[in-house]
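Exercise 7.
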Amino acid sequence: MESIFKDRKIAIIGSGLIGQSWAMIFASVGYKVTIYDILQPQIDNALKQAEAQLKSLSEKGLLRGKLSADQQFSCISGCTDIKETVKGAFFLQECIPENLEIKKSLYKQLDEIVDDNIIISSSTSTFMPSQFSSDMKHRSQVLVSHPVNPPYYVPLVEIVPSEHTKTEFPIATRALMSEVGQKPVVLTREIEGFALNRIQYAILNECWHLIADGILSVKDIDSVMSDGLGMRYAFLGPMETTHLNAEGFLSYCERYSKTINGVSQTFKPVPKMEGPVMEKVAKELEEMCPLEDLEKRRKWRDNCLTLLSQMKKDL
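Solution. The predicted structure, written as tokens, is:
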């Protein structure tokens, strides 16, 4: 569906891969998107990459939205003037590197040039919004919209307000993200790691221990997820999975809660991912996917994710 706000403007701060993905996502329904960066060559490269990706997706029949690749690309422009970039925008998506001091500096700059209505959204996966917005006079307009990498191919977005964020802004952000085809979830408050990374880290920690203890190889650990848990988690979350694996959740708890608690008591302390185990994991991963093949493997991953997303929509 074409956006009812197609003539409205969205500002992207940062022209890296995440910024490019966001620009493509917003342009897919016709928003006018301006990408800002400090150097024109970086912007030129971002525009070149976005155009190439849109054309490639179109050729494969995987392009999002109703507009053609050329129509979508025509919605995207670049700018090295940050004031001009944010002027007239109703939504701003920040995509700069994960460095807290750099973010604080940027948000201090934004604080002086934005109006009182623009939603200021960060792509950060590391920092809670209060960590870089608490001293701003426009802090009530700041929140996090954390995408999953790569954002164009994985739709989840975690919307995280700070204690200062106006209640209407997470609501408006959720509506925007839904409109452009993402799958937003809204946290009621900020918490370290948000939701996705807290769950992801719990999985990684246990995988680490299973490898360190010689229980499974790296390849077999990944198979547990890709050929087991991940098969159903691609369609059902862990909570509904439990509901279906018994006669409802109460039945599941009656059957398995003691086992879950008992096994969980054997979990080890949170590990530090360093030392010999780190070297072992790296070696096995490089045997599975040599470093020179990373980009090829990423493209394969992105194509698989796009096909999966389309299949889920069809279902």
